[in-house]
Amino acid sequence: MASKEQGNDLLTLKTIAETLNQSQDLNEMLTTVLERLLEVTGLAAGWIFLSENKGDYICAADCHLPPALKSDNKKPMKEGGCWCIDKYWSGKLTGAVNIMECKRLEDAVTLSLGDTKDITHHATVPLKAGKETFGLLNVASPGKIHFNVEELALLESVAYQIGTAIKRMKLYEAHQKRAVDFAKLDVATRQLKKLNNIATFSQAAADYIKAAFQFDDVTVYIKDNGRLSNKKSQDDSSDPETHFTFAAKADREKSVVLTERQNRFIAALPLNNGEKVIGVLVISTSASRQVSEEILKALADHLSLAMENAKLHKMRQELSVLEERNRLARDLHDSVSQTLFSLSLTTKGAKNLSGNDAQLEAALEGIQQMAHTALSEMRTLIWQLRPPGLEEGVVTALNKYGRNLGLIVHTRMDGVASLPEKTEETIWRIGQECLNNVLKHAKTDEAEVTLAMTGKKATLTVKDNGTGFFPEDTAGSIGLASMKERAKAAGGEFKVISKIGKGTEVTVTLPVKGGFDEN
């Protein structure tokens, strides 16, 4: 007799195994295997609950439910708690057991929902693979109030087979979703590479990412002078305050922030350039559309590169304009200005040779006056063609330049006076290179710029509290050599003080012809 029962059990397991291998759709597989299980065991009804999180479950499959449990579109199977679910969530359900009374059936009787077909009890067994659990398998028959040890053991073996199949299918689905998400990532990154306008970068990048992944809300923040800004005409996210809160946390902690609440997935990822945070990407969408942290980090890396590329594009444009302005200024100074100056001198000399011819002398006076006026206007034009920003002073210009790099620049001026044009441009160029070095090498986002104008000297000092370096190890540094050559060409002095872990201080002192009193 025992041999016959053992043979039946093996047949049941074989039948279940064959059924599990016939489908790649989870719900279809669970329904089919439940039907076959009831068929080979002779049981009357069954249902399967799947639950990934405590407090959340679905009836993924059912077969031959009594009318009472089918009422109102199977509402009794979709809501409310019961003893088997509670035991599963509490971790107390580790194997197949008898449920002495089914709360769902009791409630159906109490509420007069329909015929229960004399089903009052059921067996329940967790669906698991190794230590991972997925839900519950419940089976019942009219009048059956107890399942013996052999029956429970068989159900446990079947449940293990089902759990293993669920895990296999979830891994397959995850693999498929990963492939789809990487395809979406490719679409997004191709679009991001096209962005070269930093002024519209936030809005355009958010739109591309949102469209590629079908996310509900996307916000791209750019860090400017230590503050996060999304630079949109308007923040069209459904919850801008939540987005900014998560962005600030990701920026502050320099790490990914992920959360899932009220069936919504929210992620905030810092955008990094080396160890420096240059912005934050915030995504919020329905839980069903969330993507893996792996995909999100890859997206953030591509977004960081695109943002830096847009900033560099702007700097290249500004440099191109600056070079053209400088060329025009040189050409005007070397040609037109000199010609006007010569005309003024020639006219002055001609006046001395005019004798007593009052009419000729008046004409020459008019020509000289026009030449003088034109020369003054030309000098003003050349002054206006200086590097952008210097109209407000070199210290203000360096502050703005540092902010565009993403640095926090603290400025100070000692003395108030106008610098000669060439001196100012030398200070501007050396200051730019100093701030570039802070960004690239100092591993800090703060710098201090001081300009002291006293007596016949102008002294620029740029300090940072970064990593520092050994000055003797920088003999081949093009940047330092360039700054030193600029200072030397202007007749000045250049000095660098730096210590590992103590930061760096660059000082350039330039002579001012005539001193500041005369200028």
TrEMBL record:
Q: Please list the cofactors this protein needs.
A: [4Fe-4S] cluster
Kindly list the GO molecular function terms attached to this UniProt entry.
4 iron, 4 sulfur cluster binding; ATP binding; metal ion binding; phosphorelay sensor kinase activity; protein dimerization activity
Top class in the EC scheme: transferase
Q: Which Pfam families match?
A: GAF_2 (PF13185), HATPase_c (PF02518), HisKA_3 (PF07730)
Q: Name one GO cellular component term.
A: membrane
Which InterPro entries does the record cross-reference, listed alphabetically? Answer: GAF (IPR003018), GAF-like_dom_sf (IPR029016), HATPase_C_sf (IPR036890), HATPase_dom (IPR003594), His_kinase_dom (IPR005467), Sensor_HK_TwoCompSys (IPR050482), Sig_transdc_His_kin-like_C (IPR004358), Sig_transdc_His_kin_sub3_dim/P (IPR011712)
Q: What is this protein called?
A: Oxygen sensor histidine kinase NreB
